[in-house]
Amino acid sequence: MGDIVNLDDVIRKEMERNNVTKPGEMVLNPVNREEPSNSLMTVATAMRTAADDIESCIELADDILGFICEKTGLDYGSFTIEDEHVEFFMESLQDSDLRPVIYTSRMENGVTYKFTICFHATDEDESKAEYKLCMYEEKKAYVYNFSTGKWLLIGEDRTSDKMREILSMGSPESEILSELMQANQGTLNEKKYLAIKKNHAPLFLLYEQVCIYMEPICELDETGKKNLLYLEPRDPFRTGFRVGWNGKEFVLYQYLDPYEFSEDGVVWTIDGKEPKIYMKEVDRTSDIQAMFFCVSALADHYIEDRKITVPLSLSAFTEGKKLDEIGESVSIIGNNFDMKKLSSVEEENLQEINEVINPSFYGII
User: Fold this and answer.
1) Is pLDDT of 15 > 70?
2) What are 205-229's pLDDT values in tens digits?
């Protein structure tokens, strides 16, 4: 049996030899060190300040709501602040100088009132408030005019029961309708939608076949009245083309947005003007299967990185990861592998796209 030793003595001698102080014997200098809880005290102070800010806003908002209810005859006790608006207030508290307080009153007859008051700081370290009272009845929205004491119609939900049914189906048509409604900002009614569907029936049919890798895009013309419907690659990493319908035929476009390629450091100098979207028709056909095969070849395959795919026709395309790779090689679509050279139209389309997007054409590289 070995000798019995005092372990503390061994540790102390070892630490003395190495000039080390035991943790329990260390003396902290309160003059040269901050209080260990200072960081939490800072948080506590910030939380108290925020709590005071919230209380001040709510107290003032409650008083203003009471005044509004007296003026309009609404029931003050029926208004509450719903959970989603509590979250909205807290997010605004953290991210901005705005303090939006939103009260909601849901009546048994289906009418909903919303009173919104928004406090915001000014340059003079003062707070100003703006408020609005709205009423929602069936598919109509009103705002209260405090000067005249009357409700003014500000919006109407034009979504019919049939349109709601289509939206609930989760079908390709649902996606097209949703895109059209978004582009038209609530002005699309059933009659107008059915007219668009009739005029673009072949494009609707094509989308049913390619919806896995394509998506609908709706744009309004310069007048803001005519809907321009296209199909573009669904994959955010793929760009370079779109498909439309002109009333008689499918139209294949080269389509490039210069701002999508800013990381390339490429300067678009079209006529010395600001960069703008480049869109050019390269082919058309009334044969839905021909367009299906073309679109499938262009978009129906997996990619791990960005790919710019630019069609030259229904039978050929060029692509690359960067703009300066466009035109370096050409791929043939479908059963056209026996093609020994591009057609004159394809050559022209290739030359033009190179002139537009190839940096070396402008002496940039």
Assistant:
1) no
2) 999 999 999 999 999 988 888 999 9
Q: How far apart are alpha carbons 117 and 146 in whole angstroms?
A: 14
Residue 8 has pLDDT above 80, yes or no: no
Cβ proximity of 339 and 356 under 8 Å: no
Residue 66's identity, in one-letter code, is G
Q: Is residue 32 part of a domain?
A: no
Question: DSSP letter at 324?
Answer: G
316 near 336, Cβ under 8 Å?
yes
Domain that holds residue 294: 161-362
Rounded to two decimals, the pTM is 0.61
| Domain-terminating residue out of 135, 156, 177 | 156
Beta-bridge mates of residue 229: 218
pLDDT tens digits along 20-41:
554 444 444 555 556 666 778 8
**Cα 54 from Cα 48, distance rounded (Å):** 10
Question: In sequence order, what DSSP letters do the residues of 178-206 get, joined into one string?
Answer: HHHHHHHTT---HHHHHHHHHHTHHHHHH
**Domain assignment present for 324:** yes
